Amino acid sequence: MKKTVDISLPVGPVHPLFKEPCRIKCETRGEYVLSAEVELGYVKKGIERIMRGRPWQEVMFLAERVCGICSVIHNYTFIEAVEKISGIIPPERAAYLRVIVNELDRMQSHLLANYSYCYTIEHETLAMYVLNLRETVMDQLELITGARVTCAYIIPGGVRWDLPDDRAESLKSALDHIDSELTRFVRIFETGPFIALRSKGIGILTKEAAEAAYAVGPTARASGISVDCRSDHPTYQALGFSPVVRHEGDNYARIMARFDEVFQSVNLIRSALLKMQPGPVRGGGVIQAGSIQYRMEAPRGELLYDLVTDEYGRILEIAIQTPSIMNIQVCAHEMLTDAESAADITSIFISSDPCIACTER
Amino acid sequence: MTSIIWYIREFLRPAWISRFLTAKTEPLVTPPYFRDFPVTTENECTQCLACMMICPAPEAIIVVKREGVWRPEITKGHCIRCGLCVEACPEDVLASGRILATKKEEKLLLSGTYHISINPKTCMGCGNCSVVCPVNREIDPSLRSSGTSRSNEVIMRVDTGQNKILHEEKCTGCKTCEEHCPNNAIRVARVVEATEGGKL
Q1: Domain locations along chain A
Q2: Which intervals hold domain 4Fe-4S ferredoxin-type (chain B) (predicted)?
Q3: Interface ipTM
Q4: Closest CB from B10, B34, B106 relative to A142
Q5: Nearest CA of chain B to the CA of A61: how many Å?
């Protein structure tokens, strides 16, 4: 039977609401979205090919540049993968410092994602509040590592340098500031009737659909799937980590799951600062030959590094699987399908926090 | 209605009002701890090439002789401001942000060993690597014009149409040969270890 379609509506690749170029092709009947497809391929870098044949001190920086928003987790995962190959165990203080920097990075990534969503539903005031709060997190990242985005803080056998007490105090006061300010912003988000109109019951992803399409990260956790790679990480286990899960599965749940995870990150950093004992931050050790598949939880979901090294620690083969590709897929095929209004296309897409630079590498 | 009350409350906060009335953009100041492009200090460079060994960006740092003195020079368009050269320099010639101070305080150290490998299938014996190698040129000045050398002390030389490695242990891992090889046939494996407290 021939399907009658009113209009094929393209959104993007260049769109004022998208952080990165990507095209959504929607088949619509009036305002009703019948189906959607996401077209990628605008920012391909070929970074895995550049990584081959290089030692860790070069690949570490390339790994960070896979994604500008969540650069620390790429550094973290790559270094822990080569450490696992070589049997290097970092000192305890370094393990906690890694968690602190990683959670700061997760906070800024989630705040940026939520800024982007608020901007998409045209609540610019709240968007700017959240973006302003993100600067506090970025300042702390810069204070600890020396750079805002590509921090290059985690190296095999430990971290680049220690966190002295004065910087730890500054971090603690910044965390208090973030906690109190974000509580206020979350209340604005929860109680805003216009926000609820654009968010609650929009872009629903059921638990069954999320499981079938292998959704990851906050997108899956907002649909009631308790999946988080941090649960398997020894340092996070020592900090008593348990994933944030919500059950609504709509735009509102995904944004609130991210806000909840920012609070969770604040608490993780606080407990890491409490548990951290003075000691060395570098244990030494050289990278050896081997192969590994290593996964960790990026702000957007499960990140997998599959790599092979040679006897001098150079990377022979590397494949990176980033979380966004799963979420973009599930967004196009489950959330966007049957959307009631064409105006919700962008907000549903942004609520799944797509990172195109990660996806295309 | 509730949202209007929320907005009124939001805008009637004393902090909001005072900031609204005294709105002023703060001048952009680079914090002193920002990891900027490395700058050279007063210390004397010994041409150990440790900075070139560790540098992850292509041709970002190069040690050159200017007016009879060896100095590291940074190409700002290539430098990614990672600060590894500051950590690797044993003579504290380079400084960036607070890395130099932290390095001295915590006795941070990046040390490396080097292994040269040549792919015989792609090496065409042009001798570019032997000519550009800074260590080779120090040992045998005749290598400045030709890839062949009579000296047995050089790191590598062209012998019967193929590049041969003689003394791998003299390599400083500066990557100059890698950058000048037209076929990417020569690779230097730089095995770097990061330690603390001065222990190797």
Answers
A1: 7-360
A2: 36-66, 70-99, 114-144, 162-191
A3: 0.79
A4: B34
A5: 7
